[in-house]
Amino acid sequence: MVGWRRHLHRNPEVSFHEEQTARFIRETLESFGGLEISRPTENSVVARLTGGKPGRTLALRADIDALPITEENDFEFASQNPGAMHACGHDGHTAMLLGAAEVLSSMRDELAGEVRFVFQHAEELYPGGAEELVEAGVMDGVDAAVGIHLWSQTPVGKVGVTYGPMMAAPDIFNVTVKGKGGHAAMPHQTVDSIAVGAQVVTNLQHVVARETDPLANVVLSVTRFEAGTTHNVIPGTVEMEGTVRTLDPAVRDRMPGIMERVIKGVTSAHGAGYEFSYDRGYRPVVNDDGLTQEIERAAREVVGEENVEVMPPNMGGEDFSAYGQRVPAAFYLVGAGNESLGITAPHHHPRFTIDEDALEVGLKMHLAVATRMLGKGGGTS
Hints:
The chain is α/β, with parallel strands linked by helices. It has helices at 2-10, 19-32, 90-105, 129-135, 193-211, 249-269, 289-303, 321-324, 357-374; strands spanning 36-38, 45-50, 53-63, 112-120, 144-155, 159-161, 164-167, 169-178, 182-183, 218-226, 233-234, 237-246, 273-279, 285-287, 308-310, 329-337. Mn(2+) binds at residues 88, 90, 124, 149, 348.
């Protein structure tokens, strides 16, 4: 698994461009024998393992895409593709699922039912690969879907599970403030788009602080603010972009209206105009309670009671949510950080990496979940 992970880390491909990654996965799966392998989309791979007895069907998913980030690590296996990097652990996800496919293939006669290994493209870029795979029928006949995310903020050796809402809906907004440009020495002759835009940013923070329930999980962040060309010109427009993260669908539905009211009020008060757009991203990841309970039991067997943590939701987004719209699904975290080795960089950082000991934990978790669900006539223990 370490070798597979390092090969993938050295050769990252960004969302919707995972041609060589998918080829490597397919060829590796073919070497195991006994798997029915298909390519439901151009850049994804699915392998089906039919057990020796009838039973349920379990889908295990790994995302395979990299991010458009220039790596700053100096590993021997650092990215050789400029501007692309596995900065979120998907190389490890893929390696762990390949390991599970190899081991479970050797256990076919002991399994009751089917394991469907789903190597999914384009998790990092909306509209995402999961929705495409659902539309292609990959979840047809599946009784449960399970996914692992390696987590650098949790120490290696630990497993985190979350009941109910786990990850947020990641929506995107864009705002253009339309003022009147002019000479910086004569601001009274202008409508200063930068000054108005700064107030828009400040007042948007009140949407969370004063317009939503303090107990609701909401994040609103302006992440891009662009204006101007030189020191002595007040620009006519400001463009800004950001994200809204919510767990509650009702709160999510209210956010665009509240935001536009604030933007309209601030701009009109200063004689400026605006354009506003709000695009919905993935749905929230909501874990099935019964399936999560099975994962928690498996984790206590694999890493011990003291290394299992029931975790609160986090406001990251994940298109694993698409599978949960069709079948009972659960997503959980496997610790991959190690402070003593300096493995502390957050996800999506140019120095991100994982403690590769996490691959063994993830493999054992895949095997434990699969054998719990399919090892005894397809029932749970």
